[in-house]
Amino acid sequence: MYGIESFSPIINQPEVAILGVNTIEEKPVVRDSQIVIRQIMNLSLTADHRVVDGSVAAEFLQRVKSLMENPTNMQA
């Protein structure tokens, strides 16, 4: 709601991870060899690497991205 394009949230004890949801902006992207305008939103994930392996955190963020791009998959 504040128009922040991206930021890195900070975790505080006893948190293990925190997901930052940034603003949705219209940006040019290439789809089927054409430049089109799409709504793009950035996500930021901060994780405590003493508890969560970076690859697991990346897999989680990829899954969130996949579900947000295809919300019908949330029904399964």
Give an account of the 3D structure.
It is a single chain. The chain has one helix spanning 54-69; strands at 17-31, 34-47. By secondary structure, it is of the alpha+beta class. A hairpin with a 2-residue loop joins strand 1 and strand 2 (34-47). The chain starts with 16 loop residues before the first strand and ends in a 7-residue tail after the last helix.
| Total discrete domains | 1
Structural class: alpha+beta
- Portion of residues in beta strands equals 35-45%
Largest sheet: spatial strand order = 1-2
Distance between the termini: 31 Å
Overall number of strands: 2
Q: What integer value in Å does the Rg equal? A: 15 Å
Question: How would you describe the shape?
Answer: globular
Q: Unreliable segments (pLDDT under 50, ≥5 consecutive)?
A: none
Counting DSSP H or I runs of 4 or more residues, the number of helices is 1
Listing every helix as H and every strand as E from the N terminus to the C terminus, the arrangement reads EEH
- Helix content bin: 10-25%
Mean pLDDT: 90
Major pleated sheet = 2 strands, antiparallel
